[in-house]
Amino acid sequence: MKMSSQTLTFKPINFSQASFKKAPIVSLQGMPVLLFNQQHQTLLEALEQKKVKIFSECRSGFCGQCKTKVISGQVTYLKEPLVELEADECLPCCCMPDGDIDLALSAEGAEVVVRVTSPKSTKKSEVTSVNPSIQG
Fold it and tell me: Closest Cα partner for 58 from 66, 50, 46?
């Protein structure tokens, strides 16, 4: 029995030539709510994780119940939606942001990160829920 031998080689990576893509920021009506990262399969899953109120039914681009207006930014579809969409709409159930995106959804009740200043004027971040009385 003849065994083949394989040689493993190491190829150094030149990081100065590598391209790194930052995680897109998802905002709701201008308020940054989350970083879309590898933990999320779809935009809908990321929004639900932050407790954003968005209705969904089929979760695969068939029904159109999660249809959302896009204020700015673009999305990439994982599955081609079967619902007719306007140029400024997306289906979060079957897409992911292609860079920073601002959606016309309410941040009321969602877990958002806000900056809080302490008496010593040092900044720290806290996760809070948006207070409905602040909304205008």
Answer: 66
Q: Give every CB contact of residue 97 below 8 A, 6+ residues apart in sequence.
A: 24, 26, 36, 43, 73, 74, 75, 76
Residues 55-102 have pLDDT tens digits of 999 999 999 999 999 999 999 999 999 999 999 999 999 999 999 999
Residue entry with tokens 């100065």:
16
For residues 93 and 62, what is the distance between their CA atoms, to the nearest angstrom? 10
Which residues sit opposite 54 in a β-bridge?
Answer: none
What is the C-alpha separation between 35 and 96, in angstroms, rounded?
A: 12
Give the whole-angstrom CA distance, residue 110 versus residue 129.
6
Q: Alpha-carbon distance 120 to 2, whole Å?
A: 73
